């Protein structure tokens, strides 16, 4: 009896081992042409790209192996550099990156916040490399973008990925406005009137009182609405009484802002689930959302997909020129320190820079090739409109290292589904005049010093989020607002103010 | 079975007494046993004890990518990270949430698996039993991410099944996921749903090892189903229950990070923020690896205390435990 | 056995039991079926109706088409998973059973010390970084063996198995020892056959553990062709879920459709479900009885 069992087990094992041996072979020797094609016998410098830029979102499982080899060969032939891509695991990409940085693994470039890595010696300054090999990169990004990459000693630590942009416009169902004979609201009273009309007059015509006047979330109300109530918008502010930098909660007008939000929530103008986890796509599908003040891509990416199944004429448009008592409603997003960086242990930093620079040459052609391989083409002769040659792309973009406004805004898909998003990026995203800019937007705070001198920093963050949500949803009455400020001080707001003021004064230009 | 155990448990003490006086002969007598367990011990030595030196990270200020040298030569900061955690504004809140959430999961989930095993054991139709058993552990294979998605869909205020039922019965739709009163229950119920079937496998395996003769004898004596279950089945699997309970108690400080992270939001931080999510958010603003390690060590020490306590109680009650 | 007829209350209980278990089964089955049927929904229908659809209007194999026609990626991933489930589980059982049996021997000097030694590893851990460095130094990175060796013995499973071994009557072993058998021989010829339910169960735990494991694989392996199926699937599933959009500034693409995600779940779950029926027969009652009386 055992002989048979042992036999069966052994057979299974042998099969498994045999299969693995085969797959190991297959995995290492893809299309023979790639590795045997007559290339120069000298070793090409290899660069290791940790592909966490988001380029892989279009095809998370990675490229079809043959296609990846093709692209690799393309770069070897064109640039004389062999790129090796490391595909990070979704959800634990940063953990793996940090582990690889700290061990003997080869990682040459990745995307991250340079200020997290520079002070710890993990990355190198790029000034010389940019001068020698990165001229196209330097030209592609405006001065404002480079400011966010430079430290107080003038060292540039990363290649920018974005610029200050506006991300929180208020979108409204323009077909409903027409249907109910309403004009685009230009101030808060009109905005509220529109929401009230949406709620009471059943614009989707289904006979049910289920219309959601505004879909939003915590960041949404802060960035899309607070500006109308606070002079500086969703920003830290300088208290003229003592010249100290304080959080928005202490600014005049904040309490009014909260009271108005709470009022709107209670009246049902703000979606009930806005402050917990919900699926915007599912909500949009139901044809009940009148307005959205969430991150712009909730509408630009999701709406075109479901539009065919919504009634004829459904359309979302941006509300322009709307202002509150204290001015523009929207607060812009300052530039961040997210950038492409080069590691200290990169063996060929010059090759890395050359590789990245290549994608900034002939914009957007090279960048598009890095993203889509051969599966795209221009549709006109203006080097702007493009389309994918196949809906089923085979190359996922592992070698794309130029994802950012400098390249992304230089083309647009001819695809109607992608048009809304492309339009927003090219026409709206950089219009900073429509929003307020936080007053400390150009300041790169030293995170280590913040953590050191404000030990309860993340507690204060949680307190601010948690209590703001409680006030808006009515779980806590507005009358307790002063008590809330007390709590903030108990949690260490004094240290917060001291430290932020200190850094602000030190770093402001 | 209990009688057999009783007999056996007397001799180890005796033998141990003998062993102490004559250690070397005892070792020689058992040399083949030592050989047998040597590979296993080596495994733990290499893969668990060597990396354990990393615990010192909790007492230093290290970033994850600074390499081995930094870990060995970095400066000591003593209990700084621990104090930061203990003194934080939300320390008690986070501790309470962690213990309550995992406590509820244990109180409801643990007996649920045993109960399911007992019910399955009573089924006479073998095919039905097998089918139900297989179905019962389907949830175990559905990853937490998907379960979270299902929960959100189920509880949505508009279109979610639960609220549809409530409205159909004349009520008003309720925002469950944003409600501090319901959130923990949601976590517990989805946890039990996911684990009850899988958890019962072990108990069923243990039940199959009980001597059928005992059941026969009981039936002769006129015992009905319930008494048989109470007096034979349960005691028969008592050692397994004990060890599973002890091991589970050791896990009380990890209350299910992923499922909380996927479902929680500021509205319910007050009841849902657990140690792991708190540390996770901390890591998002600063790459504070030492802090995370320190909190992890703190959790481990507490878990140790809990397990020792549970083991002690278990040995007192029915003489089985880990030691 | 049929000497007593079932009392009325027992019959009621039986009915109640069947009803309760059926309802419970539905609670487990329905969500799974919803995922299964959603995987057959066309993108067009998915955009019209809700996320999880119990009865699709028509069957659409688009999601599976997209996944399975990826050629080598999926195929390789399955092979890797198969390797770790078979070879891995075998090694797991081998090492766990020998260690568990050795530690079950009550007379073994130093037993408690060794148990504590192992037990501590369940509680304390140095964390990810030292483990990563160790794996690096051992040369296991990017090798298939990193899927099998670091998790060779789970202390949890070890203690459970030891628990089972301890419950076996000592007379059996005693008589074998008197006959001159060494521990390995006793383990193989006597203890293992008698503990089949335990071994089968622990084996199932290890096998399923291997099937589901993704974190270690994702961290230690870079070579795409060596990733097990769960990592590939999880990459697809999680795109657009955990990330906070303000941290990632450029999302060019909407998250994958519900159908694709559902197909991913089915593909990564179904195969292992078929293992259980084969293990079932080891749970049969009474396997132990004959040998004791004999």
Automatic annotation (TrEMBL), chain A:
Q: Which InterPro entries match?
A: Bact_solute-bd_prot1 (IPR050490), SBP (IPR006059)
Span of the signal peptide: 1-21
SUPFAM superfamilies per the UniProt record, alphabetical: Periplasmic binding protein-like II (SSF53850)
**UniProt name for this protein:** ABC-type glycerol-3-phosphate transport system substrate-binding protein
Q: Which UniProt keywords apply?
A: Signal
What PANTHER family does this protein map onto?
A: ABC TRANSPORTER SOLUTE BINDING PROTEIN-SUGAR TRANSPORT, ARABINOSE-BINDING PROTEIN-RELATED
Organism the protein comes from: Paenibacillus rhizosphaerae
What Pfam families has UniProt attached to this entry? SBP_bac_1
UniProtKB/TrEMBL annotation, chain B:
| UniProt membrane topology term | Multi-pass membrane protein
Location in or out of the cell: Cell membrane; Membrane
What GO cellular component entries does it have?
A: plasma membrane
Q: Which residues form the ABC transmembrane type-1 domain?
A: 95-310
Q: Which residues form a coiled coil?
A: none
Identify one Pfam family in the record.
BPD_transp_1
Q: Which CDD domains match?
A: TM_PBP2
Q: Which UniProt keywords apply?
A: Membrane, Transmembrane, Transmembrane helix, Transport
Q: Which residues cross the membrane?
A: 32-59, 99-120, 141-162, 182-208, 229-257, 289-313
- Taxonomy, superkingdom: Bacteria
Annotated protein name in UniProt: Putative aldouronate transport system permease protein
The organism encoding this protein is: Paenibacillus rhizosphaerae
Automatic annotation (TrEMBL), chain C:
PROSITE patterns cross-referenced by the UniProt entry = ABC_TM1
**Topology versus the membrane, per the UniProt entry?**
Multi-pass membrane protein
An example GO biological process term is:
transmembrane transport
Q: Which GO terms describe its cellular component?
A: plasma membrane
This protein's source sits in the domain of life called Bacteria
UniProt name for this protein: Putative aldouronate transport system permease protein
Its keywords, alphabetically, are:
Cell membrane, Membrane, Transmembrane, Transmembrane helix, Transport
A single Pfam family, by name? BPD_transp_1
**Where in the numbering of this chain does the ABC transmembrane type-1 domain appear?**
78-276
Q: Which parts pass through the membrane?
A: 12-36, 82-101, 113-132, 144-165, 186-208, 258-279
